[in-house]
Amino acid sequence: MPKVVDHDERRHAIAEAVRRIAADRGLEGVSLGEVAAEAGVSKGLVQHYFSTKDEMLRFATSTLRRQVERRMPGEPMALRDVLVAMLPFDADARTEALVANAFLPRALKDPEIGRRFREGHDDLVGLVASLVSAEQQAGRIAPALDAEPEAELLLALVSGLGDAVLVGHRSPERATALIDRHLARLAP
Q1: Residue 88, Cβ density class (10 Å: 0-12 exposed, 13-18 middle, ≥19 buried)
Q2: What percent of the chain has pLDDT over 70?
Q3: Which PANTHER family does the UniProt record give (predicted)?
Q4: Highest CATH level, class, for 63-185
Q5: Which residue in 3, 18, 84, 166 has its CB near the most CB atoms, within 10 A?
Q6: pTM of the model as a whole
């Protein structure tokens, strides 16, 4: 009886190998051969699923969002919890941040990867803006503030703090304290 192969599962396993290499060595470490070795499959199998490195990298970026969404707090979401969840405090979050940073230069050159980054950012702005609005309705954030620009500022803060945590400039405790301090400034 022939073995049943889950092609989607194989593609995702290869994408996971791309992410591990990107987190460890950057995109310059990603090659069909290196990915095959990391995934524990033949180079020919990688080429069966991805005819080019670009195709493989594009697919890997399509799976990044799912990784980030897994770390988000469940419903109901609280603004502070979402902001803290985006910071690279554990091994998985650190890997995700390193992978995103490795792909950033590629997003500037590859229209499809760039589009994914922009769409992901726009979705995050929408989520955080809705949480800012919820906090305003609950009386915890000043009602006169415009939710969308505040969301963009909060995401910029989280991005900067995330990079600072990655390189060791800020501890997780200090980064969390800075988020709390900024949220306190938004109170009525």
Answers
A1: buried
A2: 97
A3: HTH-TYPE TRANSCRIPTIONAL REGULATOR BETI, HTH-TYPE TRANSCRIPTIONAL REGULATOR RUTR
A4: mainly alpha
A5: 18
A6: 0.87
